[in-house]
Amino acid sequence: MADKPTLPRRHPTGIPGLDLILEGGLLASGVYIVQGPPGAGKTILANQACFHHAANGGRALYVTLLAESHSRMFGHLRRMAFFDERAIPDRVYYIGGYSALESEGLDALVRVIRGAVQKQKATLLVVDGLVSAQESSPTSREFKKFLHEVQTLGDMTGCTVLLLTNAERSSGFFPEHTMVDGVLHLTDELSELRPLRHIRILKLRGSAPVRGLHSVRISDRGLEVRPRIETIVGKGPLAEGRVAAGPKLGFGLPELDRMLRGGVRSGSITMLLGSSGSGKTLLGMQFLSEGLKHHQRGVYFGFFEHPDAVLAKCQRIGIGGLKEGVERGDLLIVWHRPVEGVIDELGESLLNAVIANRADRLFIDGMEGFERAADFPERISHVYSAIAQELERIGVTTLYTTETRELFGREIEVPMTGLSAATQNIMLLRHVEHHAAMRRVMAILKVRDDDYDARMRELQITDDGLRLVDTFTSESSIVSGGGVSNDARAKTTEP
Amino acid sequence: MTTQRSILIVDDEFGLAEMLREVLREHQYDVTLAINGRLALEILAERKIDLVITDLMMPVMDGAELANAMRNSDGHRKIPIVMMTSLPTAIPRSSGLYDDVLRKPFTPEHFLETVHACLTTAEHRTQGD
Prior knowledge:
The complex is a heterodimer of chains A (495) and B (129).
Chain A: E1 10-11, H1 18-21, E2 26-27, E3 31-35, H2 42-55, E4 60-64, H3 70-77, E5 92-96, H4 98-104, H5 106-120, E6 124-128, H6 130-135, H7 140-157, E7 160-165, E8 182-191, E9 194-204, E10 213-219, E11 222-226, H8 229-232, H9 240-245, E12 248-249, H10 254-259, E13 264-265, E14 269-274, H11 280-293, E15 298-302, H12 307-316, H13 322-328, E16 331-335, H14 343-356, E17 361-365, H15 368-372, H16 380-394, E18 397-403, E19 425-434, E20 437-447, E21 457-462, E22 465-469, E23 475-476, E24 484-485, H17 486-493
Parallel strand pairs in A: 3-7, 3-8, 4-5, 4-6, 6-7, 14-18, 14-19, 15-16, 15-17, 17-18
Antiparallel strand pairs in A: 1-2, 8-9, 9-10, 10-11, 12-13, 19-20, 20-21, 21-22, 23-24
Chain B: E1 6-10, H1 14-26, E2 30-34, H2 37-46, E3 51-55, H3 63-71, E4 81-85, E5 100-103, H4 108-128
Helix pairs in contact in B: 2-3
């Protein structure tokens, strides 16, 4: 029997998300360039990797070349959770290499690095400020020779090497890229006044990285990478068959449950489409409330109206059991400010909440919150599609709201391709004028592979909760905003 | 007549060492720089030094190794040593390897006070011998 090929040894960086993109981490004795403009997070990335490496039994050496002084660097790093002063100097060691470089050139720098790697028994080496070495090279050949010597050092000692450099150089050709095992490119840009950081793997030998841009956040926890959510979720087999055969989950509103022939299918995704103030949020909360009565755990995931206000309103109108559900831990409330975070972070937060709370029912109040956090609008469709597939795979029954722009228009636009394609059921809520009064109307537009009652009902919000009333038995065109009685219509269409 | 005091600064971060040299020169000290402990020992073998101010982490030979070598040398044992470090816990003061510590970052005033205090203490010690 042939031996299985042994996988190359890797050192995880310990940076959430980055190791996923790197297929597990950095190769032992691999040489990597981490490039990006000032402030993009290169130094934090490298230090975080050093401390993680040290915490797992490795030894790291950090060499600075005309970068910020060590004391300044420590001043910034001290607020980071990963910074462990006790690891310095025994397991993480910092030296300056610029003096040697300036006085004696690249050969002296190599000697200093080689000596320090051997003395410290370093298994991870960071050279911060590679551009200084390049600028000190009389020819590109000399610089390549320096890189080759660093590479040889890595090979001989098993030490992994990170070379940090500013990518903003006039030359479009980077000879150093051809000589290393990987190139990690960090960016820091503004998108409509919102700072956005990304990481992109330009090259990764011996691995199949998750390509493209991935969002980066820097906080007191250090650097966190959020792989593009559509590249990591929604890849499992679809559960269409399971959804079609699943039990039905009701809303606890007898008239609506009758219209749905018992409720929505377990594991299905339902869109509540409607204008502002049409009752979407309350209907969603009713769905969660009914679940709690049947010991089904729930998650509320919202962006706009603060959940405290939503819960208070629900309590006032008799949608019960929600606060008690929260107190028992059966209902998890997750709320993000609508301008907060990036779409991948929100997607991760949503899926984590559903999984952590073992939710049976999920209510997403305002899918537009995801759109506002999108770094690139063209991604939204892919993100929605991936999230929908993942929710379906998890098996949670999902309701989400999305807003129609026109309050009374005749056209009904179902937004959000990608998610709407994965949506089994669509319900419409809107305001209509009826007998000189504004009323809320609800209709089911679609239930995939199931019978349903398509007639419109008035949605009343009373002190005793939500009620669906058969107000419009003699009207047509209600849903599209008209509200014309059948008698009147018959008269106007007669020849 | 007072003799000019001679100070050796040992640091691999050239910027800080050069700045400290300027501060000391303004106060009429004679200053020599070394970028690691081994070069510092070579300088100590060649000339008279009254005070060594050394960084802790350096390539080739670090501050602790330099201090240890000096304490084990008959010629250098009594030279006062100030350790510069960003890490207060790195070497306990009880080790006896250094006379004072400068925690980075520090002000020029604090730096000069420390230098002056170390030199004065060493002078008193010498007079008492």
